[in-house]
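Hi everyone,

Forwarding the result from last night's run.
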Amino acid sequence: MNPLPLLATHAAGWRHRSWPDGLEHHARRALLDWFAAMLPGTRQPPATLLATALADERGEGRAVCYADGQRGSARHAALINGVASHAVEFDDIHRDSGLHPGSPTVAAALAVAQARGASMDALLRAMAAGYEVGGRIALAVQPSHYRFWHTTATVGTLAAATASALLLECDEVRMGHAIALAATMAGGLQQAFRGEGMSKPLHAGHAAEAGLLAARSAAAGVTGAPDVLHGPAGFAAATSESTGTWEQALHGLGESFVIGNMTFKNHGCCGHIFPALDGLLALRARLGFTPEEVRHIHVAGYRATAEMCDRPVIRAEQDARFSTQFCVATLSLHGAVRLEAFSPQRLSDPAIQAFMPKVSVSLAPDLADAYPRRRAARLRLELADGRVFEHEQPFRKGDPEEPLTDAELDAKFRELAEPVLGAKAAEALRYAIRQGDAVPGAMMPPAFTVPPPRPANG
């Protein structure tokens, strides 16, 4: 089957489709969560570095680059806002496909909506379309895609193209061309974030900008290859072990919706560490032990946890965000893994460094087989008095099984947005997203300036 016409028709239909019950509310939650993740990312590299480096390429326009509060072209804003939204690892996850749709999709859609003066309803519809196409394509190429490719960088490009094309009023034919063009612009390697460097946030920014370029091209009449998703040398074949499990990926299209089944992060680190953190919180609530009583904590997880997040030594902030050892130590000693967990003081904290060797990680083959639809971990806790306790954490706080409530999501937004905007502006933005009919604009402090870049090592 050729999935492209089905996806394009579905996406184009979002322009006039009636909202399924409760789904607009879910879309507003996704937009609120995107701002929560994006705003702190505007205050650190690589977003600050790019905002300065590309200031002369800003161009004319009404789209807001939140890293410096200035307006310019939609592509410029989509790039830098996409980078910022993926920088502090608080962005949303479609658990079943492994895609972080928000970072590239909202960055592109918001920029186009601001540039065109679109309504909030149009923006939310574009997000729903982008999330749906992105999530379905990601399902078709997983789990093998994730061995070498960063799904948010690759499939995120197609999601961003879909959302942008809907706002650019592409019909189903041009929508198909936008998705097809985006497929051949996609890229982003796993190795780029398995060590040091700032590549990972750039993946989301590039996906947003490239997706917007694909949509603008299609809107102007540029055509793409109609078999690019499922062909023998197409996207799926090149980035996974098959030409795509499309029948499975498209099951329920138009009946169940990706944007209504999102995971909103409850910890500020890689999501593959979350089951271990939630399991540790459950053990601590049950047993009431102190950090000093811990002799050893072993985490058995699925393949990404074992291969990507087993980092007993950290050299930089990115290492720490992807280190089970660091995050478990931080949670044990400080009770949470939030933004301050990755401050220079915490990264060099002797107490955390001393606790990290107490944490080990291994692969549990049965949990690996259940990935990505099940994100679980098994913990084995050894206390200094010789007692041993085991716990299996079947899902993560924030997953569809235990979603963040509206109150919890609002609290997350305030925690992350207020240090950037101030309490008054943050509350105005929260209300505009929750209740408003207009697309949020600048929402930046009047005297906002780009802060000095932090060193690359955090």
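Confidence is low (pLDDT under 50) at residues 445-458.

Cheers,
N.
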